[in-house]
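Dear colleagues,

I hope this message finds you well. In preparation for our joint manuscript, I am sending the SGNH/GDSL hydrolase family protein (Methylovirgula ligni) sequence together with its predicted structure, so that both groups work from identical material. I would be grateful if you could confirm receipt.
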Amino acid sequence: MKKALGLGLRLVAVLILIAGIVYLETSRSLPAFRFWTFVLFAIALAFLTSFLRGGWRDGALVATSLAFGLCAVEGVATLLSPPPVVHSPRGFIVPWAPLGWQPGHAGQFHVTRIDPKSRATIYDVTYSIDRDHLRQTRSCASGPTVGFFGCSFTFGEGLNDADTLPQQVSDSFGDNLRVLNFGLPGYGPHQFLREMQLGVFDGLLGSQPKLFVYLTAPWHAERTACKSAWGGNGPRYALVDGKAVYQGRCMSGLKLGLHEWAEHSAAYRVFIERNFDQVTHADIELYIRILLDSAHLAQTKYGVPLVIAYMRAPPGYLRATGFTDDEIIARLRAGAPYVFDVSLPEKSGKPLTLAGDPHPNAYANNLRAAMLKDYIIAHFGPALSLSAEGQAPLCRAAH
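The corresponding structure tokens are as follows:
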């Protein structure tokens, strides 16, 4: 009787542990949930081992020992590189077949980021998403349309609506332009090229957009090469006869599922992934070609010049690629007429990034907005009906 009761209790314990694993993997409610998944799995194996005898038991003991060893490795990796703690409403970012992902719906999204070690708040902001699934930018609906494209730097991650780069550019022109912010966290030049090829925003851009601006940096090459941790659903391009040719999604099926599962393991990120995500010479070649093809398509399909606003890479980033920032800029300028270096001085006297986060702060965006305003007036003032002060008289009158 006691033996049967003991077996029953152990079986119940195993079922509870399995339920705990399922809950952790589906809810992902803890920042380091994968560590706790491994712990529960190891304990469940230990209980299951108690049911076995002979060679099966010996094999299960080895498996249990390995499982607890995996827990130790995952625990050390979590301490070395704790996962970011970001709280955002469900539905803020959802899968979207054309480009990989987008905001799920219009509304106000309150997002916070917490330092995983100190527990200090890095940012606590609200993102306004409009009915077109874009970051809201206050501008003149009847003014010349200027589209800003890019990643989280363009979107304004960690900043309230008033502090994003597109909004500050709009403000610098007295809200006389119709400024659209197509930037989104995790996006790269491959999404920009693909959205133009598909025409997913053609209706929003209207029949006569005037200018596109793409904010980029060499680390976008990780994304165009499908090496970023989050980019499995994004579009994939390859160089074919000197052109960037669409090849489907970066990943799909079992490969995508395994990749997304592994990305939640600190051990994978710390000890394995870094061996596969290094940017190569070929990756930079693809990155350059995608930008040049984007500039060509913007001109031929939309009749719009593209300003490639280039930010230089962190020191040492390009060392293994055989490229320098100056060489990349020269290559871009050889194939696209409007390439503008918007790098900011490292020693500006004030912080240029958010405290505890590498994204540009409001001050950095203000500096770049001023640079872009001068560049736009100098090169495109007449096309945008702008005076030397950057005013569009018709739109100003509409105000």
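For the figure legend, we might mention the following. The chain has two domains: 2-80, 131-398. Residues 54-80 form the longest helix (27 residues).

With kind regards,
E.M.
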